[in-house]
Amino acid sequence: MNETNSNRIKKLLNGSDVIRDNQNNPALDFDFSNETILITGAAGTIGSGLAKLLIHTPFKHLILLDNAETPLYYLQNELERLSIQNIDIILSDIRYEDAMNDLFKNLKPSIIFHTAAYKHVPLMESNPYEAVKLNIFGTKLLADLAIQYQTKKMVFISTDKAVHPISVMGMTKRIAEMYLEHLNKPHQTQFVITRFGNVLGSNGSLIPLFKKQIERDQAITVTDSDVSRYFINKDKACQLILKIAHNDDWEYPVLTFDMGKPIKIMDVAKTFIKLHHTNTDNKIAIKLIGLRPGEKLHEDIIATNEQLKPTQYQDILYVVKNQDEYSKPLDLTSLQGINSYQKPSEIKAILSTYCR
Questions:
Q1: 301-327 pLDDT tens trace
Q2: Which of 75, 117, 76 lies closest to 95, judged by CA?
């Protein structure tokens, strides 16, 4: 690992919630004073990160929605201590049609940050029905309601795992991308897709896992010595997402961030040990455990039929298709007929027909 790569990893780690050397709030220049903002998955890493930035900007109304009771309770307590006004905390699920219809009808969100998703790759391999219902049909429901109630903009948080996907999680996110891309031209609601890599320090990600393993005097586990990923820290990702929402001038619907070159997980593990482990008498080992179901050795940020183009912002890039492949509406009929008793392999086979 060269010095440049080591410094990149240190900077990413210092911007995570696990190791942080700067707790100051960033200077933000966003004005959402006319906007009613809905964040789905508001108690998650990106959702809560957006909420904690938005409370330092002018906004009309903030709606924080999640189906995870305890994390949402913690977020509520944190915001109550700050005495922020005009915030609704809603415990619900984006798959509940009646509840979502009531929310849109009564609160009329003008901007949606859709971060809610099932994201853990191996877990979704064995539970594809739930991934389909949340990642695809939950997204579809929100998008359809956004059109019905004339929401101005919906920002969908996607993933690099949606590029040439081999996992259930990646396939469901790719299909959701495709559904939203179809909706952009014929409707007034603007659908923007943000596709980026791993958020270092996010809930359930490798850094919290490394931290727990070290605290238990266990070996750090890495799947493969060559496995690599694109990384971005939460603060930067959330600031760029707010920038995307604040600007209406996007020529193409799919955007990504300049995350630099992929980083080997092995290098992240070694750097984390140096920064976090202070007991030199007890060395921390690294154990290779092999790739888990649905995992790739390397991820891509664009597909073979896509290219990157610059935007007016240095850290934000367009993902542009080489040709318009999705001129017809996406037919989700074959997915609507799946049930929870089907074999995971059967459901994944249906998903794969959409992602060829």
A1: 999 999 999 999 999 999 999 876 555
A2: 117
Averaged confidence pLDDT in the chain: 91
User: What pLDDT is stored for residue 21 in this prediction?
Assistant: 42
Catalytic residue set: 161
d(C-alpha 298, C-alpha 161), whole Å: 10
- Asked if 134 and 117 count as a contact pair (C-beta separation under 8 A), the reply is yes
Q: Is there a contact between 285 and 220 (Cβ–Cβ < 8 Å)?
A: yes
Task: Residues 21-200+231-261+300-354: name the CATH superfamily.
Answer: NAD(P)-binding Rossmann-like Domain (3.40.50.720)
Sign of the dihedral defined by the CA atoms of residues 341, 342, 343, 344, in that order = negative
The secondary structure of 28-42 as a DSSP string is ----EEEEEEEEETT
Q: What is the DSSP string of 338-356?
A: --TTS-HHHHHHHHHHH--
Question: What does the pLDDT average to over 251-276?
Answer: 92
Domain range annotation of the chain:
21-200+231-261+300-354
Other C-beta atoms lying within 10 Å of the C-beta of residue 139: 25
Kindly report, residue by residue over 165-211, the tens digit of the pLDDT.
999 999 999 999 999 998 987 789 999 999 999 998 787 788 888 88
Please name the helix (run of DSSP H) or strand (run of DSSP E) that holds residue 224, with its range, or none.
none
Can you tell me the distance from the alpha carbon of 89 to that of 92, in angstroms, rounded to the nearest whole number?
A: 10
Q: How many CA atoms lie within 13 A of 6 on its CB side?
A: 8
